[in-house]
């Protein structure tokens, strides 16, 4: 799974902060606090974290739907942080976005056919006949009958709507798709249909995915690598099997322990964190997770931990792991407890 | 044998409940049909199903909170074999709500009053139902806050819901719900709006309420993993009917109804990574599309002609296990279980 070619997309230390009006002066809300990620061609990178941790903001900046406050974005080796005009137009074709809620992301006054045709028209591609053919081809690809071309979004079920949302993103033949909670609004049986569809589309069209979700089972199922976010920072990143079998950051450990064990499997010890996420507008010194961490010590209060490499492609931001290269055999639970 | 409870003391007895939705002056459709369920003291019973299966309507009907267009058109609802809730008018139900039976809703933001302090909202039911004086109610509210694990209870009494985080709000909701020591707590998707680590806290709290006070809990959710973790018994609903009913281990280890089997197979668990997920074809039929036969027939791979014409009754398939499917009749005749 590991390849050493240049990444398709790279985020270098990107930040996003918003200023909030308050008296006196203004408060800064740092939604994303220096995130670096590289996404390889053809892989699915899962991004997990709790609500408000900044995972969607990262997704939006990746697709250039939001401008980062600091940091750089590289796509296919060139800097696209400030790309504009024609370059941006081209980028928008190659990087697409699928939104969480298929109920609000489709224009209710457009038919499915028009929704799918719109990106082609906007980019002045093909003539009417060619566009119609493309739309029909796409409908077939996502498993909707050609008659759906004349339906409106309100006539579709949630799963069908999400299919249309995905189809719309794929109309421009993108290389990279940001999937922002694509199945969270769907029922379990429909969710499985959409996950299967995403998998087979990725295979057929050799797509690269950034898959954002809070559902750990879903992320495990679709991803090759997973990054865990907490309060605007990435705290751990690893190959999917490595991360779920050997979570090292105390936060990741709590997350993984919250997945209900499969029937028949031994019950995991559940780690229940105390407290809530701290106020993101407050100034946070040291490790952002320390207020809820079971292992926090003095150093965590003053110093933000840097990255420690703890295995092949496995890195964690926690003082506990500094300078300790954990061999795969080392049982992380023992070391931490 | 009647699928009953271990305990002799029955808290809630729902018998063949039918709920009707008035669609025009003369016509009505059944939203729920023939739902029976018993809950014993200290038991946690789960209701699972996809959106639109009627699980929330079931919970609302217990407290007489049905929307105006719906009414109970058949069956009975008994609380502790004493109070016939189905025959009660609003005035009498008000004495039951919050005292004998209370409810925790999905979204704590929209179920708390924004304009009133948290303290007022907690003490309200204490003063109303138990006739506490102002200071007594205050004392008890502080105790309740401690019990549900809310920090700095004295100060919290004077705060407003918008000042609290999602997890804290849900704790306040639970504090209100258990304030009068109800015999039954209905929790309708209590953790859907919360993050995973907070969800673990809330579920832990609900378990301890059951342990300490012997409160019975009716837990409604679409999350099969959570239901499996929490419940003693489970009913699976599909399109307004109970399709399967049994102990948690029966349902999850030996599901018998094709719908339950399909639902369990479509959850992306770690073991299924790399394989195509099973997905139930099609979607849930709309209210007016429910035919004469088995509700699941249109999506069932085993459906025969009989399934499309007749509704299957609940068939005993185990000691504590019933399922509504014609396919199981034969099995039962051979008395395998």
Q: Report the uncertain regions of chain A.
A: 327-337
Mean pLDDT across every amino acid position of chain A = 87
Determine the fraction of residues in helical runs of chain A and give it as a percent range: 25-40%
Q: Treating each run of at least 4 consecutive H or I residues as one helix, how many helices of chain B?
A: 13
Note the overall shape of chain A.
globular
Number of helices of chain A: 11
Instruction: Fill in the CATH topology of the largest domain in chain A.
Output: Rossmann fold
SS class of chain A: alpha/beta
Number of strands of chain B: 12
The rounded distance between the terminal residues' Cα atoms of chain B is 14 Å
CATH classification class of the largest domain in chain A: Alpha Beta
Regarding quaternary structure, what we see is heterodimer
Strand content of chain A: 15-25%
Specify the biggest β-sheet of chain B.
8 strands, mixed
From N to C, what is the helix and strand string of chain A?
Answer: EEEHEEHEHHHEHEHEEHHHEEH
> What is the second-level CATH architecture of the largest domain in chain A?
3-Layer(aba) Sandwich
Rg over CA atoms of chain A: 21 Å
Indicate the percent of residues in helices of chain B: 25-40%
Largest sheet of chain A: 8 strands, mixed
Strand order of the largest sheet of chain B: 6-7-8-3-9-10-12-11
């Amino acid at each position: 799974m590991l390849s050493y070619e240049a990444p398709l997309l790279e985020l270098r230390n990107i930040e996003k902060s918003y200023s909030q009006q308050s008296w006196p002066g203004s408060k800064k809300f740092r939604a994303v606090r220096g995130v670096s990620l590289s996404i390889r061609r053809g892989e699915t990178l899962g991004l997990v974290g709790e609500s408000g941790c900044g995972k969607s903001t990262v997704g939006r900046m990746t697709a250039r739907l939001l401008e980062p406050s600091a940091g750089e974005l590289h796509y296919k080796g060139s800097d696209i942080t400030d790309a504009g005009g024609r370059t941006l137009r081209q980028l928008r074709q190659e990087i697409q976005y699928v939104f969480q809620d298929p109920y609000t992301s489709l224009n209710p006054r457009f038919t499915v056919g028009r929704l799918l045709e719109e990106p082609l028209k906007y980019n002045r591609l093909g003539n009417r006949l060619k566009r119609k053919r493309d739309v029909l081809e796409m409908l077939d690809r996502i498993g909707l009958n050609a008659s759906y071309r004349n339906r409106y979004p309100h006539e579709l079920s949630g799963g069908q709507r999400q299919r249309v949302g995905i189809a719309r993103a794929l109309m421009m033949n993108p290389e990279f798709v940001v999937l922002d909670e694509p199945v969270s609004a769907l029922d379990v049986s429909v969710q499985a249909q959409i996950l299967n569809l995403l998998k087979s589309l990725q295979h057929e069209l050799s797509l690269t995915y950034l898959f954002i979700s809070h559902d750990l089972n879903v992320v495990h199922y679709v991803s090759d690598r997973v990054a865990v976010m907490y309060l605007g920072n990435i705290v751990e990143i690893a190959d999917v099997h490595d991360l779920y079998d050997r979570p090292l950051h105390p936060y990741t450990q709590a997350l993984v322990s919250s997945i209900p064990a499969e029937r028949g499997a031994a019950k995991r010890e559940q780690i229940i964190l105390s407290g809530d996420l701290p106020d993101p507008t407050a100034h946070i010194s040291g490790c952002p997770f320390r207020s809820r961490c079971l292992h926090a010590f003095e150093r965590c209060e003053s110093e933000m931990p840097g990255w420690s490499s703890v295995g092949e492609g496995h890195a964690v931001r926690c003082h506990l792991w500094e300078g300790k290269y954990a061999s795969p055999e080392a049982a992380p639970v023992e070391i931490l407890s | 044998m009647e699928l009953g409870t271990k305990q002799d003391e029955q808290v809630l007895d729902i018998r063949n409940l039918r709920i009707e939705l008035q669609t025009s002056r003369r016509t009505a459709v059944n939203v729920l049909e023939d739902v029976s369920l018993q809950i014993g003291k200290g038991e946690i019973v789960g209701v699972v199903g996809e959106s639109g299966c009627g699980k929330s309507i079931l919970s609302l009907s217990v407290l007489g909170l049905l929307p105006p267009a719906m009414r109970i058109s058949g069956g009975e609802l008994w609380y502790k074999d004493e109070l016939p809730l189905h025959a009660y008018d609003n005035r009498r139900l008000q004495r039951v709500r919050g005292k004998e039976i209370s409810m925790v809703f999905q979204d704590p933001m929209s179920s708390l009053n924004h304009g009133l302090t948290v303290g007022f909202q907690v003490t309200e039911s204490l003063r109303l139902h138990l006739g506490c004086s102002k200071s007594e109610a205050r004392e008890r509210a502080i105790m309740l806050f401690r019990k549900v694990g809310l920090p700095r209870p004295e100060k919290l009494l004077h705060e407003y819901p918008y000042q609290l985080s999602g997890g804290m709000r849900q704790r306040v909701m639970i504090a209100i719900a258990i304030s009068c020591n109800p015999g039954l707590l209905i929790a309708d998707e209590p953790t859907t709006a919360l993050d995973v680590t907070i969800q673990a806290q809330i579920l832990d709290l609900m378990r301890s309420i059951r342990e300490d006070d012997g409160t019975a809990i009716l837990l409604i959710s679409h999350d099969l993993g959570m239901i499996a973790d929490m419940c003693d018994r489970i009913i699976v609903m599909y399109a307004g009917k109970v399709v399967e009913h049994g102990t948690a281990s029966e349902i999850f280890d030996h599901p018998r109804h094709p719908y339950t089997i399909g639902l369990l197979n479509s959850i992306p668990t770690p073991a299924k990574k790399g394989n195509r997920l099973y997905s139930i074809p099609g979607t849930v039929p709309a209210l007016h599309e429910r035919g004469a036969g088995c509700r699941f027939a249109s999506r069932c791979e085993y459906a025969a002609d009989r399934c499309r014409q007749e509704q299957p009754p609940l068939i005993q398939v185990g000691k504590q296990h019933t399922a509504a499917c014609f396919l199981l009749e034969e099995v039962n005749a051979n008395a395998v279980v």
